[in-house]
């Protein structure tokens, strides 16, 4: 990996850690995305829920409001077909409606199962590269002026085990996660000082739909829910995240 691995103690997230901050979460209704959205809201942030299925975003919105969390904001965006115009519209809407942006968590992911490259459908490969690499780049670029305006802001990229993803059959997902890590490293080199910082996280195995699809036959319920990873991401978004600036927070057990 181009980015160094770090291991930090992540205690329970204080209730007001992200008070007054605005955080954008892509793939917000997914397993990790929804956990991050709730954890960031519990820490006091106004969360922008981004995803392609409006109905599922609305269900997450209702769940968060019923739980007494700060009211989130819904912004539907389909990363499979979005264009630079859509990303600029997202950034403009955040500035117009909220006036600031303090963090982005790129939790959206495209994964179509384990497939040999010789059998990989080209459109599936291109879709994964677009959702997993090109979209995080375009969203971050469009929102960078807002992020750099904040005194303390961060973008968090979610990675996966590089040793595992270099093996057979991981296809577009493996290639895209490697590309995402390298892009994060370049972005950090370009912003290694100042209020805006680049963060990345390497989760331990967790109970998600992606895990169920990738590990056919495994009892996914034996894996923990993504709550611990979500708490670590919120930690990275807060002031203490500076300790892992330009590094990958490694949550795997060794």
| Rg, nearest Å | 17 Å
Largest sheet: 8 strands, parallel
Strand content: 5-15%
Whole-number mean pLDDT: 92
Helix content: 40-55%
Query: Can you name the CATH architecture?
Result: 3-Layer(aba) Sandwich
User: What is the general shape?
Assistant: globular
CATH class annotation: Alpha Beta
**CATH topology call:** Rossmann fold
User: How many domains make up the coordinates?
Assistant: 1
Query: What is the name of the CATH superfamily?
Result: NAD(P)-binding Rossmann-like Domain
SS field, number of helical segments: 8
Low-confidence stretches: none
Terminal-residue CA separation: 17 Å
Strand order of the largest sheet: 1-8-7-6-5-2-3-4
Give helix and strand order, one letter per element, not per position: EEHEHEHEHEHHEHHE
Structural class call reads: alpha/beta
Please report the total strand number as a whole number. 8
Structural summary, described in words:
The protein is an alpha/beta fold. It has a single domain (5-250), classed as NAD(P)-binding Rossmann-like Domain (Rossmann fold). Helix content is 43%, strand content 15%. It contains 8 helices and 8 strands, in the order ββαβαβαβαβααβααβ. The chain has helices spanning 31-42, 54-66, 84-98, 122-149, 162-165, 171-190, 209-214, 227-237; strands at 5-6, 22-26, 46-51, 73-76, 103-106, 153-158, 196-202, 248-250. An 8-stranded parallel sheet has the order 1-8-7-6-5-2-3-4, sandwiched between helices. α2 (54-66) links the parallel β3 (46-51) and β4 (73-76). α3 (84-98) runs parallel beside α4 (122-149). The longest helix is centred in the middle third of the chain and has 28 residues, at 122-149. The two termini are 17 Å apart. The relative contact order is 0.18.
